[in-house]
Design goal:
- With 231 residues, this protein is an alpha/beta fold.
- It has a single domain, classed as Rossmann fold (3-Layer(aba) Sandwich).
- The protein has 9 helices and 11 strands.
- The chain has helices spanning 28-40, 64-67, 69-81, 83-87, 110-113, 119-131, 167-173, 182-188, 218-230, and strands spanning 3-7, 13-15, 21-23, 44-49, 90-91, 102-105, 134-137, 161-162, 192-193, 203-206, 209-212.
- 47% of the residues are buried.
- Residues 29-227 form the DJ-1/PfpI domain.
- This is Type 1 glutamine amidotransferase domain-containing protein.
- Keywords: Glutamine amidotransferase, Lyase, Stress response.
- It holds the Pfam family DJ-1_PfpI.
Length: 231
């Protein structure tokens, strides 16, 4: 069995284009599907955040009016069962890449606030990519990839195929007034962004990089990770 590192945002507010804040955090369904699937398969799953600060769940992601009553209850129950790990995660800056076979980055808009510019995450992703470890960000999780730059300032994942929450999805059902569009920013940095139909499962695999487009892609990303680390 493998050791898996799930990196979560510690940001509970996203700074919008007009300077105001919008409640955010990690998206419950994405995290739960990945964590539950990997743990159920027998893998040792650690959770880390910048500074080891508590990982906040995006309130919209457990709102029955937004995700449905049954799913909201299921997600709340699972998050409650691992509340200690979410309230006291490992310190991201202390994580050693050699200890993990996989780095997973679920979404929610929170990663746009902190993980996209976190130097410790950038170093971890760079080392993980160098050794060929599986890197699996999905939905807004690929914002974390933006932290990985080379010494000359270039984007480590430029030229790599990937997907992420699309601009069309953000405009249609995301957060109004986001400071920047994720798929657009990744493309501007040199990534080859391949979007699928809005709100459908879409996964892109480029060597050790496994990316998913949206919450609907959570299960497919998890399956792809499980297949990659058991190969």
């Amino acid at each position: 069995m493998s050791r898996v590192l799930i990196v979560l945002t510690a940001a509970d507010s996203l700074t919008l284009a007009d300077g105001t804040g919008h409640p955010t955090g990690f998206w419950a369904e994405e995290f739960v599907v990945a964590h539950r699937g990997l743990a159920a398969a027998g893998h040792d799953v650690a959770i880390a955040t910048p500074g080891g600060r508590p990982a906040p769940v995006d309130p919209a992601s457990i709102d029955p009016s937004a995700v449905g009553g049954r799913l909201a209850e299921e997600l709340r129950d699972y998050l409650g069962s691992i509340s200690g790990q979410l309230e006291h995660p490992a310190i991201l800056e202390d994580m050693r890449v050699e200890d993990y076979a996989t780095v997973v980055l679920p979404g929610g808009h929170g990663p746009m606030e902190d993980l996209a510019v976190d130097p410790a995450l950038g170093a971890i992703l760079g080392e993980a990519d160098e050794k060929g470890a599986v890197i699996a960000p999905f939905c807004h999780g690929p914002a974390g990839l933006l932290s990985a730059t080379r010494q000359d300032g270039s984007f480590r994942f430029a030229g790599r195929r990937m997907t992420a929450f699309t601009d069309a999805e953000e405009r249609a059902g995301g957060v109004p007034g986001v400071p920047w569009l994720l798929a657009q920013r990744l493309a501007e940095r040199g990534a080859i962004v391949e979007g699928g139909a809005p709100w459908t499962s879409h996964v892109v695999i480029d060597r050790n990089l496994i990316t998913g487009q949206n919450p609907q892609s959570s299960r497919a990303v998890t399956r792809a990770v499980l297949e990659a680390i058991s190969a």
